[in-house]
What we know:
With 290 residues, the protein is of the alpha+beta class. The chain has helices spanning 38-43, 46-57, 87-93, 165-168, 226-236, 286-289, and strands at residues 2-8, 11-17, 24-28, 61-62, 68-70, 79-83, 102-106, 111-112, 118-120, 127-128, 131-137, 153-161, 163-164, 184-192, 204-209, 212-218, 244-246, 268-273, 277-285.
Amino acid sequence: MKLLRFVQNGKEGWAVCQPGRDSWHGTTEDAPAYIGSLDEVIKAGSHALQAAIDDMAAQDPIDLQAVRLLPPLSQPGKIICVGLNYHDHSMESGFEQPDYPTLFSRFSTSLTGHDEPIFHSSLSDTLDFEGELAVVIGKGGGNIARDQALDHVLAYSVFNDGSVREYQFKSPQWMMGKNFDRTGGFGPWLVTADELPAGASGLRLETRLNGVTVQSANTQDMVFDVASLIAILSEAITLEAGDLIVAGTPSGVGHARDPKLYMRPGDVCEVEIEGIGLLRNQIESRAAIQ
């Protein structure tokens, strides 16, 4: 099952694509059949979500070419990102591989959807790409055992953790450089966990800048896999339905190259994960958009 959010004629909505089908069905918030936002029904629990999916699947088809896609979640309760989660990326970044996940937070104001711009701020020319797997929690909990952790995953998606390196390293904490407005590409949709290998392991991940492959890896190479991340995080933090875990990037980032390779206005960055989808964003000057 795939789930996505969209805007049509100024109204937000969401749609579903059932397994084995190419068509999307759903509706917008002004329709009588609309029973709440995708965020709301995910947070309401599995039974409410399934009922909502069944209702949406019965609606008219949605032409994706006629709508604007939004980040699959509008207001994740928590966006927890993982740094240094591939050995090769830790090496290229000059860090010793940590034996505990390197964690930082993003905020919802940093998100942007598929085929929407990633902002290039006039404050810095060091906007970097990071293709990553995104994990959506469907069932909350604390102190989740590793062997039960994947039962708490609703779906997976694709993420571009756009990072303003100059600001990332202005302080020991990475928050500022990871949270410039609309630098986190997220989408194009969610793919439910039952459609993918356990923990979304063994999937090819590739990032392309202007058509040139700059990152190529496999999700099975993560140091801390999805189940481990959920178990470790939930030792201290209660996870809730609708939370988002962004699981780290492999080697090839622009900051580690010589010469450095950063995203510039006019560039197009694509992140593709096998079995999930392709996320595409054009880089645009923030000043030019406002």
